[in-house]
Design brief:
alpha/beta, Spore Coat Polysaccharide Biosynthesis Protein SpsA, Chain A, 12 strands, 19% strand, binds cytidine-5'-triphosphate, binds the ligand C[C@](O)(CO)[C@H](O)COP(=O)(O)O, isoprene biosynthesis, 2-C-methyl-D-erythritol 4-phosphate cytidylyltransferase activity
């Protein structure tokens, strides 16, 4: 059961406010999108990755992913995230027409652990049509009206924070994006559904959850880059300790 991953990386990253588009911001010497692609391929269950690049940076993105060879291709992204996903998905299906599973990942969730990627793929392979990684909500959540007045306090026990990669049976996502009926059409994504699972929910298809991970957070603001640095430092210490333990056991 072949697996395609699409990586929308064509956003401007306005909230991050860097000099380059967010997916090209370097962390530990590599652009975020390279970390994201590396994570997907390291999971060992993804056959092909399509990156949607900012129109003005296609050659930079092509050069950045060259090391991965023919397993990674690049398309020009669109105006909104949904447009980029649609363009990458359409291209991925021509590269790997027999694919049965599609992952939609954010370049901005560059440090998603391989365990999360594998559990999403395994869940779709087991027969579920749509699978998303989620985390419980730690804060109290308020619903407000247009004046900013609080109108409700939803029970957070029934709420989840949604991450990527989101996994789909290929026909389910293809239909949700209207790829068969209108291959050159616009993305049906709207302000009301900011993730791909939202589109699938609208078509009445059940969406299932697996456990997400705190390391799969979306790099959005400058503060998040400081969190990435701390996370990578913590990982380096853990890897050093593991090496020492192996050394002592020999
Ligand atoms: N037209 C767009 C907009 C977003 N994305 C991608 O979708 C992912 C999630 O979007 P987000 O984190 O919101 O990124 P930006 O839109 O770049 O951020 P901002 O809203 O701060 O500008 C990112 O990897 C981003 O590059 C995309 O491929 N094409
Ligand atoms: C897809 C997503 O990352 C799931 O949490 C999120 O919806 C993207 O939102 P944004 O509007 O692109 O920040």
């Amino acid at each position: 059961m072949s697996v395609i991953a699409v990586v929308p990386a064509a956003g401007r990253g306005e909230r991050l406010g860097a000099q380059v588009p967010k997916a090209l911001v370097e962390v530990a010497g590599e652009p975020l999108l390279v970390h994201a692609v590396h994570g997907l391929l390291s999971a060992g269950c993804v056959d092909h990755v399509v990156v949607a690049a900012p129109a003005a940076e296609v050659s930079v993105v092509v050069a950045a992913v060259e090391r991965f060879g023919s397993q990674v291709s690049v398309v020009v992204g669109g105006a909104e995230r949904g447009d980029s996903v649609r363009l990458a998905l359409r291209s991925g299906l021509t590269v790997l027409p027999g694919a049965r599973v599609v992952l939609v990942h954010d370049a901005a969730r560059a440090f998603t652990p391989v365990e999360v990627i594998r559990s999403v793929v395994d869940a779709v392979r087991s027969g579920l049509p749509a699978v998303i990684p989620v985390l419980p909500v730690a804060d109290t959540v308020k619903q407000i009206d247009s004046t900013g007045r609080v109108v409700a306090t939803p029970d957070r026990a029934g709420l989840r924070l949604v991450q990527t990669p989101q996994g789909f049976d290929v026909d389910v996502l293809r239909k949700a994006y209207g790829l068969d009926s209108d291959p050159d059409g616009a993305s049906p994504m709207s302000i009301l559904n900011t993730d791909d699972a939202g589109l699938v929910e609208q078509s009445g298809i059940p969406v299932h959850i697996v456990a997400g991970h705190s390391h799969a957070f979306k790099v959005t603001t400058p503060f998040d880059l400081a969190v990435v640095d701390a996370m990578l430092a913590q990982k380096a210490v853990a890897a050093e300790r593991a090496d020492e333990t192996v050394g002592e056991a020999r």
